[in-house]
Amino acid sequence: MREKIWWILIICATISFLFLCLSGTSSAVTRYVAENGSANFTMIQDAINISSAGDTIIVTNGSYIENVNVNVSYLTLRSGNGSNSTFIRAKSRSDHVFEVTADYVNISGFTIMNATNRPNAGIYLGSDVDHCTIADNNVSYNHIGILLDASCENTIINNTVRDNGYGFYLYRSSNNNNITNNTVFSNEYDGINLRFSCCNTITNNNITNNSATNNYAGIHLYRSDDNMIYNNYFNNTNNARDDDGDNTWNIIKTSGTNIIGGPYLGGNYWADYTGEDWNRDGLGDTRPYYSPNVVYPPYGIKHGADYLPLVPCTSPP
């Protein structure tokens, strides 16, 4: 009798477990937001407030004036038709446009703007927020475009970050992030700034026309080590500052199309590099790149260099 009761309990427990798994899988909901009232919500925040992990919120065409707090893990926020038709403007310029305080959040397809007061950002990934994906956004006219504060293991890809104070700002142990395929231009200060952050990969970005004055640069690293920076396009008044870190500015010579169309991956393209390519493989041969044109001569890349700077290649070897 005891054995029969035991088996009944096991079967019931198994059924309950399967029910919970299936109900958890099927409970994910897609919600729609439309400023014209054609959906269940007219405000993004209202849709977030009743969402659960795994839900998706699709924002239709329009202009939304909000400061959005994203506190639900595994939440996807995306526009219906891309950043050219979906605008999120800060209601308060003294707050972030998107403040993310949960892990595994995806934000894509918006124009995000007007968090102009220091130190606010278009997108803020807060302390210990990890594993988020920020993709295909136009982030502009904020004090900081995209700000990570002790935020790790994120992917930031295919964004346009322009006309902010700072473009990207990685602060206080924002480690192991992947910043790739972004266009970063016309930001007033640094295009990308890393402070006390390590082990990030920064590759395939176009970083141009940032920081025309003082000691700012296209990319600026301060007390940040073990970052990998390669296959980026730099054309700024001051291209790079690495004050005191130990970082890597090139990979080994590797077959593959680089960011300026050459046949090999190596370092970065620097608009002010004046070395020569003796063997015409698209990699500079005469000297490494140290960012010589920074305003203050002691600065530049103080430790190490880009030993395989990219140069235009008219005839592959």
Question: What descriptive keywords fit this protein?
Answer:
317 residues, mainly beta, Pectate Lyase C-like, 9-stranded parallel sheet, 28 strands, 10% helix, elongated
Coarse morphology: elongated
Mean pLDDT over the full residue set: 90
CATH class of the domain at 28-188: Mainly Beta
What are the segments in which pLDDT stays under 50 over at least 5 consecutive residues?
Answer: 5-10, 15-25
Q: N-to-C SSE series?
A: HEHEEEEEEEEEEEEEEEEEEEEEEEEEEE
Question: In the CATH hierarchy, what is the architecture of the domain at 28-188 at level 2?
Answer: 3 Solenoid
Q: Would you tell me the structural class of the helices and strands?
A: mainly beta
Helical content, roughly? under 10%
Strand order of the largest sheet: 1-2-5-8-11-14-17-20-23
- For this structure, the CATH topology of the domain at 28-188 is Pectate Lyase C-like
What proportion strand?
25-35%
Report the CATH superfamily of the domain at 28-188: Single-stranded right-handed beta-helix, Pectin lyase-like
Termini separation comes to 83 Å
Please tally the helical runs, counting DSSP H or I stretches of 4 or more residues: 2
Tell how many strands the DSSP assignment holds.
Answer: 28
Largest sheet: 9 strands, parallel
Rg result? 23 Å
Report on this model:
The protein is mainly β and 317 residues long. It has a domain at 28-188: 3 Solenoid (Pectate Lyase C-like), CATH 2.160.20.10. Helix content is 10%, strand content 30%. Strands 1-2-5-8-11-14-17-20-23 form a 9-stranded parallel β-sheet. The chain is elongated, with a radius of gyration of 23 Å. The N and C termini lie far apart (83 Å). Residues 5-10 and 15-25 have low confidence and may be disordered.
